[in-house]
């Protein structure tokens, strides 16, 4: 399998500075020249408007902001997932997909205008210094955090490895603020979490970054050793509310459970832009039963995994219909000017189906019970079909409705999680459903 950084969100490629006029099928040379001339007349329109704004707008505009807004408007007019990334946004995206950065190792949120520690990450500067869940950070290097957004505070805590920072912390039942001096280190984002649910291995993937497959492999090995290969009844792969990430990681995660066969194919505008990704021999779980959990927040790369395992009947998919993002974005760097995120292909499951604006339909639908405070409220997340300007599904017939969003609620307590408890009951043999275990013979040919 060739490595790709397709961000399902897409493949990282270099932008060429050279330009050639395209061959336009069906046009004579004279007609092609006319078409190009018309394009340049339209570009002159942009220049005329730009100069008029600079000269006559009521306040002096920022030229850079005007250009950025124009470029972004051009891209966002294509579909909801194409956009311009300024240098800062491009850097942030690289950090997110790389899955590691210079920082302190704490998961944080904002509460009452202060940064609250949700959890320190094991074996990081924050954990070693004794930072605790529930601590409230009131100052960074002596600067009050009141008034900062969460993103601004996080940006200040991140930085070059081996650089110092002092946190001023307010802790419950401690009268005076505590000052904690830390030195930033390389922090790896934990996209895979796992635990033993009795004799069942639970695997949760929150996003697909460069660390995901390695994290999954380690988790499978750890759970197999902890539970015991002879006692292990199977695995639950939880992809609920997973927004996606790197294509190569979704392929690798699918491959972890498959012995052979196509995982996904991508098809671009031209025939030579089609690519197929196939599994290699070696199921990391040795064929143990598998249930995949999805919901209305499962999008893109997570839908590739669910679609591949469902089509091959390697897993039973349980939950509610997924988001329906069936397109691939290519990140094209623009030197010092950031990058563009451009939709360049659609992807298809092994059966040849596009999930664009439709989503993955679970083999077993299980809708969560809403708590009293949410009773009577609509709990359907907006799906791809609800996004203005979304790509249509090529298989949708005229007049045929596309699928909107579906439930994305996940209870905070495992005991209240109806989808998780149903999966556990099936794997333990307490509950029976004709969709579990699936029959591989009913899957797509390998």
Automatic annotation (TrEMBL):
<dbReference type="GO" id="GO:0004252">
    <property type="term" value="F:serine-type endopeptidase activity"/>
</dbReference>
<dbReference type="GO" id="GO:0006508">
    <property type="term" value="P:proteolysis"/>
</dbReference>
<protein>
    <submittedName>
        <fullName>Carboxyl-terminal processing protease</fullName>
        <ecNumber>3.4.21.102</ecNumber>
    </submittedName>
</protein>
<dbReference type="InterPro" id="IPR004447">
    <property type="entry name" value="Peptidase_S41A"/>
</dbReference>
<dbReference type="Pfam" id="PF22694">
    <property type="entry name" value="CtpB_N-like"/>
</dbReference>
<keyword id="KW-0378">Hydrolase</keyword>
<dbReference type="GO" id="GO:0007165">
    <property type="term" value="P:signal transduction"/>
</dbReference>
<dbReference type="InterPro" id="IPR036034">
    <property type="entry name" value="PDZ_sf"/>
</dbReference>
<dbReference type="InterPro" id="IPR005151">
    <property type="entry name" value="Tail-specific_protease"/>
</dbReference>
<dbReference type="GO" id="GO:0030288">
    <property type="term" value="C:outer membrane-bounded periplasmic space"/>
</dbReference>
<dbReference type="InterPro" id="IPR055210">
    <property type="entry name" value="CtpA/B_N"/>
</dbReference>
<keyword id="KW-0645">Protease</keyword>
<comment type="similarity">
    <text>Belongs to the peptidase S41A family.</text>
</comment>
<feature type="domain" description="PDZ">
    <location>
        <begin position="90"/>
        <end position="172"/>
    </location>
</feature>
<feature type="region of interest" description="Disordered">
    <location>
        <begin position="387"/>
        <end position="416"/>
    </location>
</feature>
<feature type="signal peptide">
    <location>
        <begin position="1"/>
        <end position="17"/>
    </location>
</feature>
<dbReference type="InterPro" id="IPR001478">
    <property type="entry name" value="PDZ"/>
</dbReference>
<dbReference type="Pfam" id="PF13180">
    <property type="entry name" value="PDZ_2"/>
</dbReference>
<keyword id="KW-0720">Serine protease</keyword>
<dbReference type="InterPro" id="IPR029045">
    <property type="entry name" value="ClpP/crotonase-like_dom_sf"/>
</dbReference>
<keyword id="KW-0732">Signal</keyword>
<dbReference type="Pfam" id="PF03572">
    <property type="entry name" value="Peptidase_S41"/>
</dbReference>
